[in-house]
Structures are given as C-alpha cells and as structure tokens.
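Minutes, project check-in
Item: structure for the 480-residue chain
Input as provided by the requester:
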Amino acid sequence: MAILVNPEQPLRERLDETMNNAFTREATALAQDNFNAGREAYTSKKKDWQAIKDYAAAIRAHTLDHLDDYLATFIDHATANGSQVHLAKTDKEARDIVLGIIEAVGGKSVVKSKSMMSEEVGINPALQAAGIEVTETDLGEWILELDDWDTPSHILAPAMHKDRYRIHELFTEYGYTGTTDIPEMTRFARESLRKKFLAADVGMTGCNFAIASTGSTCIMTNEGNGRMVTSLPSTQIVLMGMERIVPDMSDLDAMMQVLPQSVLGLTTSSYLSFTHGPRRADEIDGPDQVHIIIIDNGRSHILGSPFHDMLRCIRCGTCQNVCPVYRHITGHGYGSIYEGPMGIVLTPLLAGKDQTGHLPYLSTLCGECTANCPVEIPLHELILKHRESLHDRAQLTPEAAIFKGAGLALGSSLTYKAMLAFGRPLMRGLALVQGSGDHLDGRNVLPVLSNWTKGRNLPLLAKPFHQVTARQLKGDGSRD
C-alpha cells in the first residue's frame, strides 16, 4: 500500500530488483520517449513557450511569498460558498479529520480520484483499518489496488509497470471472463467502477489548484472519474496541500497553459472539474457536504528555507520524463511515492533525511530537470544542496576514508608517479588472472567500486601522459 517512504527494502536490494526488471525498464523508457515527444512537438511550435514558463514560475513564486494572505482569502471564500474548511498540521491530523468526517455521516464506502496527497499522508490504510471500503477510481490506481495495493511507478502513469497479461490476471481474480484485448478490459473496469460510484457514501479527491478569489478547488483528469467522484456521493472531501493555491482564475489559466502541455503536449486535459461548495437548491447533482482539508505536513518548514522554491511544484512529472537515472532505476527504485528529481528534493524535506539520505545521490546533476521544469524550479541545484547538507552531517566511513587517502596520494607528484609505476603492472596481472582482457572486473578486487563497475568495464591504467609526451619529444630530438 502506498506510503510516502518505503523503509522496508534496503536501497541496494531495491535497485538490484528494479534494474534487473527488463519489462519495467523498457516500459519506463517507452513512456519517457512518448511523453517527451509529445511535449517537444508542442513546445517547438510555441515560440513564446519560455515566456509562458517565466509567467507561470512568477505566479507560483509570488503566491508562495504571500501564502498566508492567499490562504486566508481562500478560506473566507470557501466558507462563504458553504464548504467546511479544516486545517491539518501533520499527516496524523489529516487522517483523524478524514475519519471524523466519515464517521459523522455514517459513511461505509469511499471512492477516490487519484490523489498524491492521500498517499503522502496514508489515507488508504487508515480507512481500511477503520473498516471502511475504499476504492481507487483512476484506472491505473485501481489496477494497483487490485494487485495488493502495489505502489505507483510514475506520478501520471502509476501502473505503467504492469503489462496487459498481469492486468488480465488481476481482472480475472475480480470476476473478469474476457480476453486480453485492451478495450474489452477497459469496458470491464468501467462497468465495475460505475457500481462503486453509485454506491459510495463519500467521494475524495486531491487538489491540483485552489483559487483564492473564489474559494474553489479544481482537479484535472483524463478519464472522467474525478467528475463522478465529485458529483455522485453525498459527502465530498478535498485533500489540499497548503501550497496548491493560485490568486485568481487568470492565474489558473496560466497554470493550465503549462501543466498538460509540459507533460503530454496537450492543449488541455480532458476534464477540468471545479468544486465551489455543496449542491445548491436549484442544482440536480453534487454533494450535500464539502470538506476541504488544508494539509501542512512539513510544508511550513520549507517556506523561507533554502528549498523554498520546491513548493512551486505542480506535480506534472516532466522532471521524471527527462531524467536519465529514472529511466534506468524506474519509479520504484526511489522507494518513495514521489519519484525522480522532484521526489529527490521533496521527500527528504517531508520525511526527514535519516531514512531518505540516499535519494540525493540518485541523480547525475545533468540539469535536464531544471531546464524542462515548467515552473522553473532549480531542481539539480536543490539536489546539490541536499548533498552538501548530508556531507556536513556525515561521519567518516570506510569509503570516505579511502577517497580521502586517495586525495592525499594524488596531491603529490611523487606518490602519483609511484602509484602509476606499481598500479599499471598490478592491474594487468589481475586482468590476466581473470582472463578479462583489456579491463578489470572490479567487483572481485575493488569492493568500494563494485556498484559502479557492476554495469561497466574498469579499463586498465594507460601509460601516463607525461611518459608518452616525454618519449615523443625525445624521439623528435627537440628535448632530452
């Protein structure tokens, strides 16, 4: 079941598992290629794309700088609309508020539209522990639910690590009797979930954006399930990260010009659904109660910190799509529901560095995430800040001691030349014993480098540059 961080599986074990899963790596690469092709096809024709990004980034920066004012304005307008607004400082408070609302209305079943916030604060296990039936209605999330609540592998395509045959197995266990034809399986999912929509007591969604000037919240979906969740159950709960706010509708329009475009190259998402409060007397559908839970869960500590800009994030997934490390270790390699560069920065801030200290090192610092972020978060610079912080806290380890010793040795020309004089023949002798030719199998003789050499050859030391040039110069007769 999805949680913010999975501490149960050690990093190396997790990476070995993900990097040896050929299907997931191929699926991840294909998804990245498709996402990137769509984005590049759109942005290459949009001559003012950089200006649009600049504007969107400026809106997010301005909102964060005045977040207290905009939150107060939003709460006033949402309350005037008839919504009930709750404030949750921690994940536990968020869970307690959700359970209290459901208990007050006598709810027994909940349908959910995809919500990263619900996964971050652990809503699903809390509901199940209380004996409440919970159903994910996003197709990808529903597939993960059927597979014993597997964790998502991408912020937008959570089940892309499942092939049709595995999905067919899961659907068969749920009562499906058809073939592996994708449209046929999709119809089965639609029919199954429709029954859940009609029977549910409570609908729960996340919040892509909240609009301060109107007290409204909105979600963007491509399947229509979000609209069913917000209109059919009599009670609606909205889980809102405190930073997910824009000043007014024109600013929301600016966000809508970068979010779907940056991910898929789409002009807009298929569905943009707003919640303005409970159903009015002259409306034929909609909830009788709307509860908006504004969740902090560590965000207030990020405000004004060196990582302040991370709160601009609009959860588009673009940084995942361009990341070369994500391509190789896939989403599950990170051990967090927030994968890729944005997860590397955000997860340690929310969960603490004791159990997430490995994340900042799952990056090449190539800067592609920063260059493509639609709200211009300097992601690779923030990852480097995490590394600097971890380095300041780190104690001397065997690996650190080895590299410290190497630094001292390489800092002297005499020790450097001595290392070359002994190192070259030693490496050649080891390679001869191993029968590995012109490279060395470092896994057996260099344990410090074993992870690095697992997928690479360790070349033998070449003849030093100063020796080569000295002989060439001597051969030319220009210098002894």
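Outcome recorded: Residues 22-43 form the longest helix (22 residues).
No further action items on this chain.
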